[in-house]
Here is the input.
Amino acid sequence: MIELLDRQFFQLALLAALLVGLCAPAVGTFIVQRRLALLGDGIGHVALTGVALGFLTGTAPVLTAVLVAVAGAVAIELVRARGRTSGDVALALMFYGGIAGGVLLMGIAPGGSNSKLNSYLFGAIASVTEQDIWIIGALAVAVLAVVAIFGRELFVLCQDEEMARASGLPVRFLSLLIAVTAALTVVIAMRVVGLLLVSALMVIPVATSQQLTRGFRTTMLLAMLFGVIAAVGGLLASTASTRVPPGASIVLLALAGFVLALGVGKFVRRGRSQESTVTEPSTRAEEVV
Amino acid sequence: MHTLTETAFEMRDGRVTLDRRPILRGIDLTVSPGEVVAVMGANGSGKSTLVRALLGLTPLSGGQTLMYGTPPARFRDWWRIGYVPQRLSVGGGVPATVGEVVTSGRIARQSRLRRTSAADRAAVASALEAVRLSDRAHDPVQALSGGQQQRVLIARALAGEPDTYVMDEPTAGVDAATQQLLADTLARLVAGGKTIVLVAHELGPLEPLITRGVVVREGLVAHDGPPPRPEGDCARPGHEHVHPHAAEATAGPLRGWQGEA
Here is the structure.
């Protein structure tokens, strides 16, 4: 293990896992609050076409993935904002197109192969290069800066869009901002857990955290902590055997944490509702249900 | 203190069409500072759409509306408006504390890079105090009863310290004690010279505060003047057109606006 930590690639992998563990749940908290838990999945599908475009054109796949994922996220947001019933189907079509386009382009790309495809679909943290880390690091700073600067407004938007409008917030801009930030997060997480599991790191730590918390801010901070534990812990666990892919161990660790929190949360809520019976007998019945 | 340009809302021939169905069919409504206007009408009369259109939340398909002399799309002084929606939207299950939701009422007064200030905190504390929820500030809003959530919404608007309050059915589905609390809170706002536009089925304890009643019927203003009272109102000449149906008319004019939750 010590020997492993010395190796440069492993240090890079750890750094990538740490950044993903911080960013994905931070953005995920807004996305879950906005009832868009599957947005990350959608962007992930579309991003595959971006990765393949990188191989086809000889550009860094991470960069082309950023461009295509952002374009996809903007398109998804525009369809969502129109709010038509057909939007649902339009989104589905985009997801299929993203995967099919990615597989097709990868097939005809000179450097493309099935194992390359798999490494983007399911993550290949061991192959993270120094260049990847610079890009991932820059994107992570951008994502965390958006959360820090616009967090207050995004909270109002995701809680109650109409209230955001009646407060004069730039609703369209903020909606696009959250979609684009989610796209950046998908690309950050792509190398670590893979495009098919990206959404898991945006959603599971938040679902875990909200079993235990009372407020939005604490939910986000705790989710970021859980995200880091899952990402770094899952990566370390995968070193036990070369046959354990880190993406899977990270997500399974996060899920185990969720199951644990579900049990603890029941306990916490029971205590809380007993506490509130003292002042407010009427609320108890609702909480028990 | 106020001049004519301080007119809170001015709608001229306001028309709204939703899914090709005309909801508002030409509304003229001017709300002056200090007025306490009750917008009333049967379900589907367009009264909720009217207040949403006043705020620009529902776009007009014809006519125009001004907020403090500016069309909603170009309006910038949103801190002057406190909107109380019909019910609390709790997001996708991520908890939020009562304090967090009430603090979000300050958003129109906060600049992007500035942290929450002492003035913000003081306004939030006094808003919570006004609706008697100070002791629940750290509880998740999801754990509150319907009446308590209504109080959170009112506190959120109070926290913004606006000049004009727009409330969509603040009394619907809340118990008598909450209605009385709301009436007391509004009385303090009225005494402070605030402007209030509220949608109501039933005025209840708010009735003495109302300076003007606007009755909407089939997308048009059917009555605009002193708030209709349950008794002597029917006797007033030229008023019978307000009654939506003969059956409801026998129960008194306000009956028609009640019980249609």
